[in-house]
Specification:
By secondary structure, the chain is of the alpha+beta class. Helix content is 34%, strand content 16%.
């Protein structure tokens, strides 16, 4: 066992998604901006979570959306049934995704991203607590 970990304690921060579970990671290894409980981490692994996303279209433009199943949503965009904007700009590819604690927060972040320029979208990094300041 690494001695740096010997006396470390669990992070214990509230889950960013559900607000009820606690972050199970050890403080020394915890990524401070992404506190999720074990139950929510399992949902993420299964692809069941809300997120805002940015796609690059075949003409080089960017499309921003929100979904609770990113894989299926991208498939719909590439089949031409996802959105009017992407229908004639296929294929699309994922540029960025942002995990969100709820549908409401994903839609707020989607709106905020849509206000940005092309270059700002590519560089956008939400900070801890972004969803409470929109």
């Amino acid at each position: 066992m690494n001695s740096a970990w010997a006396n470390d304690t669990e992070c214990g921060a509230p889950c960013l998604r559900c607000g009820q579970g606690l972050c199970p990671y050890m403080e020394i290894a915890c990524n401070i901006k992404d506190h999720y409980c074990d139950a929510c981490l399992a949902l993420f692994d299964m692809g069941e979570y809300w997120c805002a996303y940015i796609l690059k279209c075949s003409d080089g433009t960017l499309y921003t959306g929100a979904t609770n199943n990113l894989k299926k949503r991208i498939e719909k965009h590439n089949k031409g049934t996802g959105a009017k904007y992407t229908k004639t700009r296929r294929p699309v590819s994922l540029v960025r995704k942002f995990l969100c604690p709820s549908k409401s927060e994903a839609m707020k972040l989607e709106y905020k991203i849509k206000q940005l320029s092309h270059n700002e979208k590519l560089l956008f990094k939400p900070i801890l607590g972004w969803y409470s300041n929109l």
